[in-house]
Write a structure and sequence with these properties.
By secondary structure, this protein is of the alpha+beta class. Helices cover 32% and strands 36% of the residues. It is built from 3 helices and 8 strands; from the N terminus they run αβββββααβββ. It has a 5-stranded antiparallel sheet with strand order 1-2-3-4-5. The longest helix has 24 residues.
Length: 139
């Protein structure tokens, strides 16, 4: 009984993400892949492509905490939470708020992506690629 209730909760959450992404982004966001393994701590992963900037948008959930990652074609990435903190506990309200925040962040396109090459970290933005030499730069 409990498993059925949990699976139902996670199925609804995935459905909420899909519906809200469609409502907020329309044709600018395309679902590329979906993986649901609710039996593994409620795990699911939704992989989208944000067409205007050709970014991968990846939503991953474990237990009841989700993350949203933005990744470019070179695999430089950052999390939405790094850009701006938001409530990432799985609920209908938090899902729509995070998607609206993502839409705002993507439309402004003023965030840094991070890339790891040969054991070194680089910051990538509109000014180009720059090596991160001090961990304090990542804070």
């Amino acid at each position: 009984m409990l498993c059925d209730e949990l699976y139902s909760f996670y199925r609804k959450s995935v459905s909420d993400f899909e519906r809200d992404f469609q409502e907020v982004f329309g044709e600018n966001l395309v679902l590329k892949d979906k993986c649901c393994s609710f039996e593994h701590r409620g795990y699911f992963k939704l992989h989208y492509v944000y067409v205007p900037l050709n970014y991968a948008i990846i939503v991953e959930n474990e237990f009841r905490t989700f993350g949203i990652v933005i990744e470019d074609e070179e695999k430089a990435m950052t999390s939405l939470y790094r850009i701006e903190h938001f409530e990432n506990q799985l609920s209908e309200g938090n899902i729509i708020k995070s998607i609206k925040l993502l839409e705002k962040v993507l439309s402004e396109n003023k965030f840094d992506l991070f890339l790891h090459i040969a054991g070194k970290t680089y910051r990538k933005n509109k000014n180009g690629l720059k090596r991160v030499k001090d961990i304090k730069e990542l804070m």
